[in-house]
Amino acid sequence: MTPTLSLNGTAHIGATRIFGPLSMMAPAGAWTCLLGPSGVGKSTILRLFAGLDEGITFDGDYGASDGGPLMPRVAMMAQDDLLLPWLDVMGNVTLGARMRGERPDHTRARDILARVGLADHAAKPPSALSGGQRQRAALARTLMEDRPIVLLDEPFSALDAQTRARMQRLAGEVLRERTVLHITHDAAEAARLGDQILLMSRDRIDAIAPPEGTSPRAPDAEETLRFEAQLMRRLMADA
Amino acid sequence: MRTIGRSLALIAFFLLLWEGLVIVAGLPRFILPPPSLVAQTLWFSRSLIAEHALITGAEVLIGLVLGAALGFFFAILLATSRTARAILRPALVFSQTVPVFALAPILTLWLGYGLWSKVAMALLIIFFPVTSAFYDALMRTPEGWIGLARVMGANRGRILWHVRIPAALPGFASGLRLATVYAPIGAIIGEWVGASRGLGYLMLLANGRAKIDLMFAALIVLAILTLLLHAAVDRFGRWLSQGRI
């Protein structure tokens, strides 16, 4: 079962209010893009859902709609690929199993590597990969975890334009059907990928109707570009 | 190859300068023997020197292995337990305020004139740099890696074993490299204070009998021993750090 994520309340780190009171929802099986200026607390929301909540005081409630625990159902991918440099690509992709003391399923890992186009790179160390390949390895590691909830923290923002476009399409395809919460600064990215687009400020989160068509949309489609422009204007007005 | 050539040229130049200085200044051989005499002594006393070098080498090597192992476990203990940190860190720093030199007579008294008092000296010198370098590295694990491991469902033990320790091995290696240069100092001091074998003992003996050439010969062997050990540890360290830096 793919759960819906919801959050309702106020977050503090120490005595500083980070955001809220506000409420948000990431519907089950949909791709939700969360946009907003730096420092508004987007990453704090992600950390809460990921269970990395040290130092965050949260008044209110957040969690999965079915009331089940979040931690064992969440996978995370960040701007930093977080590949361990002493393991080869295969070792990194199967890291989760080793972290839980389980036997890594190498056959499945090879299938996933083939799916993200890294079939020939399984035995290479991360240092031998390009930036785009490293993010694909991180995506393969995320897929290997096979979790219904996927949290993305600007995973494509350090890539060049072409690589980013390819990664967006790949991620949009392979993560379909999961509940995705994707933090991004990029209006174009939100226009391509979002089934739901949320605009966050310190005190509120507004939902914006996404462009037509299913994600991942073509980056050069008229509708996508028009939506991107409209979103950009909205972001500028808020700033 | 070019660097080796350059080093050899430098050494040759230095030796010539030394030989020339002895001849020009007319220094007696019990003050400063010429390098040619040192070389002769090195050759003719080779079995004597080798016998003592073997002892010192064993002391340093055992001290290094034990000190490195102890430092490894101590650093992990400090990095994983807040209580251990609170109790042991001040004690560790305090232990460094006592010069190891001052402990040599006591260690000789406790452990005898044999191998083990020197091993203990070397160990005491090695222990701190290894512990401190490895501990620092263990405390600097990138947050992102730990967060990723936790989201994957790892407990503290697995995070330590699969992330923190492998990530900190270059720190351990650099502590070990530093320790290797210091270790012979401990062994030699131990031998000066009380021993019947070893290069330090041989040097003291030669000095007392005004055999300065033998002293220099022993000193050269000690330096070579340390260099070889350092080269070996350096290789080991690079192997440990493979792909991590």
UniProtKB/TrEMBL annotation, chain A:
<dbReference type="InterPro" id="IPR017871">
    <property type="entry name" value="ABC_transporter-like_CS"/>
</dbReference>
<keyword id="KW-0813">Transport</keyword>
<keyword id="KW-0067">ATP-binding</keyword>
<protein>
    <submittedName>
        <fullName>Putative hydroxymethylpyrimidine transport system ATP-binding protein</fullName>
    </submittedName>
</protein>
<dbReference type="Pfam" id="PF00005">
    <property type="entry name" value="ABC_tran"/>
</dbReference>
<dbReference type="GO" id="GO:0005524">
    <property type="term" value="F:ATP binding"/>
</dbReference>
<keyword id="KW-0547">Nucleotide-binding</keyword>
<dbReference type="InterPro" id="IPR050166">
    <property type="entry name" value="ABC_transporter_ATP-bind"/>
</dbReference>
<feature type="domain" description="ABC transporter">
    <location>
        <begin position="2"/>
        <end position="227"/>
    </location>
</feature>
<comment type="similarity">
    <text>Belongs to the ABC transporter superfamily.</text>
</comment>
<dbReference type="GO" id="GO:0016887">
    <property type="term" value="F:ATP hydrolysis activity"/>
</dbReference>
<dbReference type="InterPro" id="IPR003593">
    <property type="entry name" value="AAA+_ATPase"/>
</dbReference>
<dbReference type="InterPro" id="IPR027417">
    <property type="entry name" value="P-loop_NTPase"/>
</dbReference>
<dbReference type="InterPro" id="IPR003439">
    <property type="entry name" value="ABC_transporter-like_ATP-bd"/>
</dbReference>
TrEMBL record, chain B:
<protein>
    <submittedName>
        <fullName>Putative hydroxymethylpyrimidine transport system permease protein</fullName>
    </submittedName>
</protein>
<keyword id="KW-1003">Cell membrane</keyword>
<feature type="transmembrane region" description="Helical">
    <location>
        <begin position="52"/>
        <end position="79"/>
    </location>
</feature>
<keyword id="KW-1133">Transmembrane helix</keyword>
<feature type="transmembrane region" description="Helical">
    <location>
        <begin position="182"/>
        <end position="202"/>
    </location>
</feature>
<keyword id="KW-0813">Transport</keyword>
<feature type="transmembrane region" description="Helical">
    <location>
        <begin position="7"/>
        <end position="32"/>
    </location>
</feature>
<dbReference type="Pfam" id="PF00528">
    <property type="entry name" value="BPD_transp_1"/>
</dbReference>
<feature type="domain" description="ABC transmembrane type-1">
    <location>
        <begin position="49"/>
        <end position="233"/>
    </location>
</feature>
<dbReference type="InterPro" id="IPR000515">
    <property type="entry name" value="MetI-like"/>
</dbReference>
<feature type="transmembrane region" description="Helical">
    <location>
        <begin position="214"/>
        <end position="233"/>
    </location>
</feature>
<feature type="transmembrane region" description="Helical">
    <location>
        <begin position="159"/>
        <end position="176"/>
    </location>
</feature>
<keyword id="KW-0472">Membrane</keyword>
<dbReference type="GO" id="GO:0005886">
    <property type="term" value="C:plasma membrane"/>
</dbReference>
<dbReference type="GO" id="GO:0055085">
    <property type="term" value="P:transmembrane transport"/>
</dbReference>
<keyword id="KW-0812">Transmembrane</keyword>
<comment type="similarity">
    <text>Belongs to the binding-protein-dependent transport system permease family.</text>
</comment>
<dbReference type="InterPro" id="IPR035906">
    <property type="entry name" value="MetI-like_sf"/>
</dbReference>
<feature type="transmembrane region" description="Helical">
    <location>
        <begin position="91"/>
        <end position="113"/>
    </location>
</feature>
<feature type="transmembrane region" description="Helical">
    <location>
        <begin position="119"/>
        <end position="138"/>
    </location>
</feature>
